[in-house]
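Next comes one such specimen:
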Amino acid sequence: MTETIYAIGDIHGQHEMLLDALTRIEADGGTTSPVVMLGDLVDRGPDSRAVLDTLISGIERGRNWTVLMGNHDRMFLDFLETGALENPMVRSGLDWLDERLGGVETLASYGLDPAMPARRLQKAAQQAVPREHRDFLAARPFYLERGPHLFVHAGIQPGVPLEAQSVDDLIWMREPFLSYSEPFDWLVIHGHTAQKLPRHYGNRINLDSGAGWGRPLTAAAIEGARAWVLTDDGRVALKP
């Protein structure tokens, strides 16, 4: 029998959407089914803190959840650890506190005023963000290989062995991954590149449907090469 594994696209601080996605998964497969969150837990949405609280408490209760690292999670950690606001992988040159990247909303969810000077803001954030949250984010894996599936936040370099993939590619990759049409060694399930709707490309499935920009958060059921988006009315097939 083919295993059903569930995946949730980029959450981006959308706590209510996350709860709704988990409810749809439970209705489809119960409370013991494996679920993979594809990273970008924080930024842009209104309640990154509550997202982390929910994920941490669920895993502590024994839920079968794997939560991956996304580039926004890494930027949040970098700010907490070093005060860094810029990342060379952001091609636009925007810093993490720019409204388009969403760090302001993340800090506000911890009761912080992002308008204070950056040095003071970092110190205040180190006090306000629970150590449990920082440790949880720092421990996130960069991918999950499970049978015929590879779950990763952004993508992989075609033709490069999994163990040789760089962390930057796993959480920041777009090209040449997105335009690669040949089969990978797995069906790759990813997020990172927001689209209006999730899409099955045959060799990969993109589940980032733009929750960070106010669009719906996608929860999907995956069985072998087949996938379905979960709705309040049941499954809707994602066809290559």
Observations:
- Helices lie at 15-29, 48-60, 71-82, 103-108, 118-128, 131-138, 167-172.
- The mean pLDDT is 96.
